[in-house]
Inverse folding.
């Protein structure tokens, strides 16, 4: 299973999962339609579903077009549907803590095992420690010392977004010996030190866990078993 990040952050969000048989599952449609189409080589018929966490444009920009193209959309904030099976992908959504209705994603596929995707949330209200997660895609948006608590902008900027400390607590609590990848998403260079963030998350994981920043163009392999 290949994970390809097109973009991640308040300017736009989109990650593409491609299974060995070519089945594509898109996580967020928050970039230009054209960029998504190019990234999947115009194989719209291979897209089994697209999940969108919430209504904000940086997550949903291309949703109307993909809907028109007949792609199945998993967007619980609009229709209340929380789960579905799409090819060999099994998806379950769960509520997050944002300034509008927002949902996280738990996804399984035989090739990659399981993963959670958590973005635009003050914290994650769900405990995944029993699931033995293989991959965690989680927001690390801001850190202490890099936001001005007195600024009128502070509340607007960080309310409903996860701090590095909260992200670290989640990873620490939910990491197991089956965790392979932690991908830090929805970051902002002005509010978080990325090298520091990677080191902090590594400090609560086993040494063999791959901790990476979701920069545009990132491509990693998501496997269930790493030999
Ligand atoms: Zn948002």
């Amino acid at each position: 299973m290949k994970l390809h990040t097109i973009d991640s952050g308040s300017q736009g969000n989109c990650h593409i999962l491609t299974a060995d048989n070519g089945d594509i599952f898109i996580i967020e449609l928050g970039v230009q339609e054209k960029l998504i189409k190019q990234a999947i080589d115009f194989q719209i018929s291979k897209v089994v579903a697209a999940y969108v966490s919430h209504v904000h444009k940086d997550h949903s920009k291309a949703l109307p077009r993909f809907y028109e193209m007949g792609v199945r959309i998993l967007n619980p904030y609009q229709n209340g549907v929380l789960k579905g099976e799409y090819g060999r992908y099994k998806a379950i959504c769960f509520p997050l803590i944002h300034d509008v209705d927002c949902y996280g994603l738990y996804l399984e596929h035989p090739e990659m095992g399981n993963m959670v995707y958590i973005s635009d949330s003050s914290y994650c209200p769900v405990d995944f420690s029993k699931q033995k997660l293989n991959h965690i895609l989680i927001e690390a948006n801001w850190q202490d010392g890099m936001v001005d608590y007195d600024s009128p902008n502070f509340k607007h900027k960080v309310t409903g977004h996860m701090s590095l400390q909260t992200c670290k607590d989640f990873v620490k609590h939910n990491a197991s010996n089956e965790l392979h990848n932690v991908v830090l998403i929805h970051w902002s260079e002005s509010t978080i030190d990325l090298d520091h963030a990677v080191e902090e998350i590594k400090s609560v994981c086993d040494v063999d866990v791959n901790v990476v920043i979701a920069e545009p163009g990132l491509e990693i392999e998501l496997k269930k078993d790493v030999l």
About this structure: The pocket of zinc ion is lined by residues 54, 56, 98, 120 (CB under 6 Å). The first strand starts at residue 2 and ends at 7. The mean pLDDT is 95.
